[in-house]
């Protein structure tokens, strides 16, 4: 005789399973280094930074391990589970050691564009400087047959070109604002400090910049064409009602009345609209004006937007983002004035409090 199912117990089991999967996805989402948005131009940009044309597509963490390759989106969910020519990436290479790459997948071309490399053949280089990691991106990818598609390599892999962020390098990366210069659709430029390590989470030593020529999503939109009338963002609502950005900055507070009327579930992500970001006359710091609740966040997301993104998007809507000409001038001046030693110490000390622990966990986590 079959025992009757307890619907309450079944619901609790489902909820517990969903929470486990959410936490697992969040763990993987936090294994990527996220750039801040360039709301101000670093003084040493021309001497201490690299610039990369940023491919448009799906940012993902790629791990080859146990004879298979798995790519995970920024949400931590699986994008592809496939065979690749990366070490330990297919069933014929199971004796080799794993790899971890930071990539952008372009669905139209079915290519993984490699932005960074954190582990190759079991050798971790999270704590190596950018110049060494990017050297390995090009040298190691040239050693394996990842440029063609076959039964042991379902998708092509290609390194993203890297340039010193001087005047000449910026010109090559920008390419006149045309995607045809790099054989892929661009989504702005990525700047990364030459001496920084690969840090989990937000890093001020990695910056993203866009304009209307280099990105269809210069101003945030769902389709890259129609700009919404109001700026929107996704933020984390704490149990006490405080609304937080990715870096933990308080953007606003939900009153108990708003929470009750809208039946807002706290301790999770929610969508908001913003009128603008301005300078407070009282404190002299940037604050959000007209923060309004817009509904629950997407279940596909596990991390909120960063404060720098909110500021950049507000600037973009008002035509106040740094222009490519302003960046070029700073590159030219910085190259003549600043030396590499000036900010190396900053780069080495950035986020040291948890990098080693998180890195150890990432090497042991199953894909």
From TrEMBL:
One of its GO terms (biological process) is snRNA import into nucleus. It is found in: Cytoplasm; Nucleus. It comes from the Eukaryota. GO terms for molecular function: RNA binding. One of its GO terms (cellular component) is nucleus. Keywords: Cytoplasm, Nucleus, RNA-binding, Transport. Residues 31-206 form the Snurportin-1 m3G cap-binding domain. Belongs to the snurportin family. PANTHER family: SNURPORTIN-1, SNURPORTIN1 RNUT1 PROTEIN RNA, U TRANSPORTER 1. Functions as an U snRNP-specific nuclear import adapter. Involved in the trimethylguanosine (m3G)-cap-dependent nuclear import of U snRNPs. Binds specifically to the terminal m3G-cap U snRNAs. This is Snurportin-1. It comes from Lotharella globosa.
């Amino acid at each position: 005789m079959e025992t009757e199912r307890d619907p309450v117990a079944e619901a609790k089991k489902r909820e517990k399973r969903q929470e486990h999967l959410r936490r697992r996805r969040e763990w993987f989402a936090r294994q990527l280094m996220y750039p801040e948005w360039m709301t101000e131009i670093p003084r040493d940009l021309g001497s201490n930074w690299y610039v990369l044309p940023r491919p448009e597509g799906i940012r993902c963490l790629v791990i080859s391990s146990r004879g298979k390759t798995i790519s995970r989106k920024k949400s931590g969910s699986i994008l592809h589970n496939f065979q690749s020519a990366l070490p330990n990436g297919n069933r014929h290479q199971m004796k080799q050691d794993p790899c971890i790459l930071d990539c952008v997948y372009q669905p139209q071309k079915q290519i993984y564009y490699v932005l960074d490399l954190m582990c190759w053949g079991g050798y971790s280089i999270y704590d190596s400087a950018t110049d060494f990691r990017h050297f390995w991106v090009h040298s190691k990818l040239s050693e394996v047959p990842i440029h063609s598609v076959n039964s042991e390599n379902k998708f092509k892999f290609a390194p993203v070109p890297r340039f010193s962020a001087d005047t000449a390098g910026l010109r090559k990366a920008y390419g006149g604002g045309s995607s045809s210069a790099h054989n892929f659709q661009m989504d702005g430029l990525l700047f990364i400090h030459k001496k920084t390590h690969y840090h989990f989470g937000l890093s001020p030593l990695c910056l993203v910049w866009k304009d209307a020529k280099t990105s269809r999503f210069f101003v945030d939109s769902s389709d890259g064409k129609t700009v919404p009338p109001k700026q929107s963002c996704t933020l984390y609502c704490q149990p006490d009602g405080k609304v937080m950005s990715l870096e933990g900055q308080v953007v606003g507070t939900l009153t108990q009345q708003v929470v009750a009327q809208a039946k807002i579930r706290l301790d999770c992500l929610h969508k908001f609209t913003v009128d603008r970001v301005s300078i407070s006359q009282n404190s002299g710091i940037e604050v959000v004006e007209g923060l309004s609740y817009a509904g629950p966040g997407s279940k596909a997301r596990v991390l909120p937007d960063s404060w720098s993104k909110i500021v950049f998007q507000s600037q973009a809507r008002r035509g106040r983002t740094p222009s490519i000409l302003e960046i070029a001038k700073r590159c030219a001046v910085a190259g003549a004035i600043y030396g590499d030693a000036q900010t190396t110490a900053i780069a080495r000390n950035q986020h040291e409090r948890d990098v080693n622990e998180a890195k150890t966990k990432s090497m042991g986590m199953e894909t």
